[in-house]
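Tutorial, part two.
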Amino acid sequence: MRFGPRILFEDVTTTFFTGRRYAITGPNGAGKSTFMKILTGELEPSKGDVTRPKKLGILRQDQFAFDEHRVIDTVIMGNNRLWKALQEREALHAKPHDQLTDKDGMRMGELEGIVGDEDGYTAEADAAILLDGLGLEEPLHERKMRELQGGQKVRVLLAQALFGHPQVLLLDEPTNHLDLDSVHWLQDYLCEYEGVLIVISHDRHFLNSVCTHVADIDYQTIIMYNGGYDDMVIAKTSIRARIESENAQRDKKIAQLNEFIARFSAGTRSAQATSRKKEVERLQTTELARSNIARPFIRFQMDQHSGKHPLEIKSVVKEYDGAKVFKPFSANVDRGEKIALMGRNGTGKTTLLKSLIRNAPGFVADEEKQFPINGGTVGWGHNVAVGYFAQDHSETIGKGPTAIEWLHEFDPMATQEQLRGVLGQMLFSGEEALKPTGALSGGEAARLIFCKLMLQKPNVLVLDEPTNHLDLESINALNIALQKYLGTVLFVTHDHDVIDEVATRIWHFEAGRIEDFKGPYSEYLVYAQEKAS
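Running the prediction step on this input gives:
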């Protein structure tokens, strides 16, 4: 498959087997979504063909295509044969009784057979189970799709893809817009799925938990590996190291042979020299294709330490239209703590972060502080300097300047070399540093904000969904950087591994209250299970 003059992958022949669950991996721009669109039939390959079963479950990307339909109907549309039968049956039932023909009667019998075969009599109940599992409660099921928010629409479209027992599930970023509870529900559901699953995701824990095989797009081809994502990384690294070692040994041997040829090609040992030339041709080093994986380097430093108690929260309350988002919340934060804010979407995680930064010292922009609260106080401690990553990048990055010009605003004393050095760490090399901010993708905008935070050197980081839009390499770099960071962190993410490996404390949002658990995520899970039993 080509994208303009660029080859994404070529001469790919592979079979996806029933009962296996495949991850499609590769960095942003490698061609994962292009390959998925070829599998769904949205794109035609430059050459070759794809054989598909009749019944596909596809995660649709158009959030507005079903705006005039009920949520529950949108899910049932995932089974096209059933939906068409239900619509035709409804049209026949609407006919006046004296206008029904014998042919209509026979057709109604056929339609009842299709509805029965496709589990149509329990369709609404089955669809409701999927919606509930994905965090969309019953009152939303009867609403029109246009009444839902973007993240809710995505979850309905995911339920649509899962509905109707498809033979193949094709899911491009199914965990986007899902809270951690919904991600775990989806993991369990997919592990029980008996067809062919092909999934793209930037959630490492999700891929390791669900997938039995990995189809990795790199070196302009697609290579199949057994196991989950981590298994693929180990195997891929091992294979490349072996090839490079063999090539180094061949290079050394070829150098020795060329030295012999140069010394004796014109003398009495010319026959031996000719033999050595043939051996050199045979030993020519296998040319390694260039990998398209690019690994960013993130390192958060501090200009100075904060005081021992950087944050004190006393009875903070936030209301919308008179309704409390959460009950009065109080907490004291010690220097060096890394606190994960967890809970279902819409429970108030972002609201709390905005309530905290409204009077934060350091590097929070004035427009990000315009957020009134309805009660309580937030006190920031001695020498605190806060760096903020907003969930909505448009709040942080305006349109107009280039990436390097925008970054320069935050450190006017920095030289062009220093700015390019930071940008290069985050994969903005050469001309990419001159890209207009308005043309940045979601992942590029996130990486540019990390550049800003690395320049500012805050001692408290407040991060709202920093892993959104990042590829697996960037998420891993962020995970490592947060583990090594010596300052204090408050963060929201739905990435299981980042929470598990970074958090030292959990604030869990549920049913209008925030529970403060002082311990890592692994201990919190044990606590939550004991509490539920």
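The first helix runs from residue 32 to 40. In part three we will examine how such features are distributed along the chain.
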